[in-house]
Amino acid sequence: MDESTIERTNWPPRHWPDEGVTRVPYWIYTDPEIYRVEQQRIFCGPNWAYVALEAEIPEPGNFVRTFVGEKPVVVVRDEEGSINVLLNRCAHRGVEFCQAPHGTAKEFMCPYHQWTYDLRGALRAVPFRRGVRRQGGMPEDFRLEEHGLTRLRVARRHGVVFASFGDDLPTIENYLGPEMLHYFDRVLDGRPLSVLGYMRQRIGANWKLMFENIKDPYHASLLHVFLVTFGLFRADQPSSVRMDESGMHSALISMRGEQKESEGTSEMKSFRADFKLADPRLLDPVREFPGNATVVMQTIWPNLIVQQQSNTLAMRQLVPRGTYQFDLMWTFFGYADDTPAMTQRRLRQANLMGPSGFVSIDDGEIMEFSQQGIETFPRDWGVVEMGGRTATNEDHMVTEAAIRGFYRHYRAIMGL
Amino acid sequence: MINPELRNEVETLYADYGAALDDNELERWPDFFVEDCIYKVVPRENWERNLPVALMLCESRGMLRDRVTAVRNTAVYAPRSLRHFIGQIRVKEDGSGLLRVSANYMVLQTMVDELTRIQNAGKYLDLIVRTEGGLRFKEKICVFDSVLVPNSLIYPV
Fold first, then answer.
1. If you average pLDDT over every residue of chain A, what do you get?
2. Which pTM does this prediction carry?
3. Which chain A positions have a beta carbon within 8 Å of B62's beta carbon?
């Protein structure tokens, strides 16, 4: 049996409900066998996973340590300016040789037996290769070139670095498709970026719940009282949900409105017309992108969310850590030519995001509530029928269409 | 050498500060600061690399109040209780009437159905000013050690 095939059993159940993508069975969030196959087919499969911004490694030798799925990798710029993504695992005995989260290196040396690799991952030196006093050493036919680090394929677009363990990959542009590329390029338009800092959190929920959350505008207009109260995201504002052909990538697009009561707020029990900021500098958004949209949240299969809410911009990278938890790694950025006032505005608006964000707190907590509710009921399922039963683009936010699109693709990839 | 009376006063400020947060008297939290103040909670990773992003950034007492209002009225989260431990308080007078104070802190968090665990630990890098009402924070930078936050950091530390 192929090791990436899912073993069919009655317990845990591994049969998708007959209703299709309007039902999401709970075993996909809890079954270790599903998780194992996801690692192989999705995170190590023929997909472009986000790994870094080029602005994090501007100079030759600069590296960052990160993950593709659960697999540790090093993203490094070499002497020629090329970017290499190397499995962080010594070819000798499997040691995770790079422990620093970032830095500058001329070469990578595994501390265990000092096997040394260049910045392209080629093995350059093995101590005592010829033995000591004609004793020991590697066999005559041992070839350095056969024992380099595993290299991932690399794609770059407008300062964003993607990597893949897979073969036969489309270009990153074809992978995104024309419409998703349009939204990607809207924020990542080729201007040099400037990294403002990181936030990282471990959330006690299956990684797919994070994607569902960002693909679900229905919740945003109800759960996020802060966004709704200040008109940053609301059901009565012009909005749309767009997907690529497969449904694996999507974008939620919306426009900022006023803080006032309306049809959209009448069903929101906690809309607060009376809530005023004591210091309005916290929310002082300025328009900086073409078009009318003031928020675009884009999900890119299999591990990236590109966040543009007003002037706060971030790459959110998902790192799965078992069926029941994942790490969310936020890289906040602006543009190299931002004025100090614009940078300060981005930093203030970062109060909305991350582990202490006025908006994101809600999501982190709700995802854990979901996992807790699901955990012991693998035989049951969730209902995803808001906005109909299809997975098509919609020009409103009262829909779960992008979740259905995601699971249409997920089922095809997983053979479920 | 800081005189013992001043030291005692500083220690009392930190004890009161921690108690207000532990007792969920969040509305009192902005009162520990002067109007024109800075409050930040920063991962050590950003602090050491001079990267400016903070989990919480308040640039006035008004922004502190806005954070309290958000936590009380708009944010959705599981109930929890907190316990602050503040120690190794080091006080330096900087000559201009301000006190430069550093201290270690640890915040334990207890959720319903869970054991108590460390939610956040790090150091305070503070500037304290004397006002008519007593000592107040002019600046409070909380640099926390674990870059990875266990889900959400809801309340200020």
1. 93
2. 0.96
3. 277-279
